Amino acid sequence: MSSAAHDGTIESHSLEVETYPPSAEFAEQANVHDSSVYWRAAEDHEAYWASRARDLQWTKPFTEVLDWSNPPFAKWFQDGELNVAANCLDRHIAAGLADRVAIHWEGEPGDTRTITYGELTHEVKRAANMLTALGITQGDRVAIYLPMIPEAVISMLAVARLGATHSVVFGGFSADSLRSRIDDAEAKIVITADGGYRKGRVSQLKPTVDEALALEGNGSPLSVEHVLVVDRCGSEVAMQPRRDLWWHEEISAFDGEHTAKGFPAENPLFILYTSGTTGKPKGILHTSGGYLTQVTATHNDVFDLKPETDVFWCTADVGWVTGHSYIVYGPLANGATQVMYEGTPDTPDWGRWWQLIEKYGVTIFYTAPTAIRACMKVGRQVPEQYDLSSIRLLGSVGEPINPEAWRWYREVIGAGKAPIVDTWWQTETGAIMVAPLPGLTRLKPGSAQVAQPGIDLNVVDEAGNRVDPGQGGLLTIRKPWPAMVRTIWGDDQRFIDTYWEKFGDQYFAGDGARVDKDGDVWLLGRVDDVMNVSGHRLSTTEIESALVEHHAVAEAAVVGADDETTGQAVVSFCVMKSQQELLSADDAEAALKKHVADTIGAIARPRNIYIVSELPKTRSGKIMRRLLKQVAEGKEVGDTTTLADTVAITMIQQQVNTTR
Ligand code: WT7
Prior knowledge:
The protein has 660 residues and is an alpha/beta fold.
């Protein structure tokens, strides 16, 4: 395995792996079967993307493809107009596809809804009318805090249909996190549910919204005028008169008549918050025409989608970019039939996913390495009880997939023959950037392989110069791409500083990478203070600030330590304030874990918290997180020459080893 250290140095141990060319049978039927697409796109990347954009329906065709006159602020197809939702819905109805299933939805308790394109269009139009009546117009922001139920998709599309902007907040985030996102975007409406089903229980959402809205906030008046509540679980919830409205009651007043209007290609479509290297999450802004072009194109090409016959299933939550791009916009724009599942893979038992694949005849399955490793641990005897013969293609996203998991995935889930597309991309890139094209690429377990046509990828050294094959470096993108982040919401300067400061004219992604002699890309992990836990991005700084906010904590350091199942795990080292020493270490650990979960969300809960008496620091007082990471991983501590003294790290090492 390879890893990148926080100080930017990259250790990479090259792996010689076997390759898997596409079968003749697969190659023959593949959507992309002519490799000239790569050089044709490279020769004129604007012409390439313009032709992909023309596959969409424009209410006003664009004449200008890319405006890069004010880098790094790109404008794609800027004089064109389209309606994103109509591209996902009305266009298919007009093509006679109203009866095609859009979503096979399955609730965790086993309740189901089958929604055709006709029905989905009808519901989105009604929801758009409802939102209009509540005062939502072009440019307004709507926060969406929902479980994985069809109303999540309906809400997103209804907001998009009005030219408004959604900000989906993952249901696992705390009241604090929700509130700061609501405030940052100045959302007028929050769409939520009483709760959702998770691991056999109701996981409450509305009470968290109430708590969020009651918090002090950032000083400016609360932007929220209404909270729309979907009744998912029939639980008792408090409804604040006038502010809180039941979705089903409000929507009942509206019919399905709604004419979609075209909006400029650069109209904001959504904001999605993601962790950066500082405490404050970044509101990644995506716009309409370019985003839809690239998610639609990559969904077609990388997943080899045949909308008439395929059943696509992406297991992500709509609260993450994967759900935005490959549950909502890409698949629906392509007229795909897909599975959407509310719950967790282990409920009622670990057979759930495989049972759903069998039940719905899923042909394309897209999930994360952490889930694959969890299933490997449970054992192949579970999936082997189900008929998975419908599967013809598998996808992976979120972190590098280790070759062992790759082989298991292919053999056990893909019957030893389904191509696996390992897709590298980010919230900021909006769409898949590096991945095999399954009809062309000779697959290599562990490598995300090649930049997609029209994507100009580079691997460079600290000075921005391309490194030689086999050498580790930093992954950058040289030319603008259609689905790229347009800015950080409300903070253009932070956008420049975060992604463009380092190399000027190249977008710096934050990942280390290496290109091998065949030109295949190997991702080596983050080179900044960002952790990747179960494919979710977490900031070490954000968790550290949550910890030091606790009244008992004097100092905290957080590292992402390698973890067999989750990729990385959050490990914290805390120094308590002296008057708190009476607290037992066990109590302190439990209290601090809960504190982090309450402040940020359960996904950020540390796996370990070590209460230590001192943190290892350099002579200039900088915490040596690199050493703490080694300790947390049970490794020998490397170079300690820059430490002020080695006592602290030695003591921590003893402490960690005795509790391991
Ligand atoms: C970071 C982006 C894109 C959707 C999910 C995460 C890592 C993502 C891969 C992959 C190696 C990957 C990178 C990236 N990552 N996919 N196939 N191979 N690393 O979105 O939260 O924006 O995180 O996830 O480190 O920078 P995100």
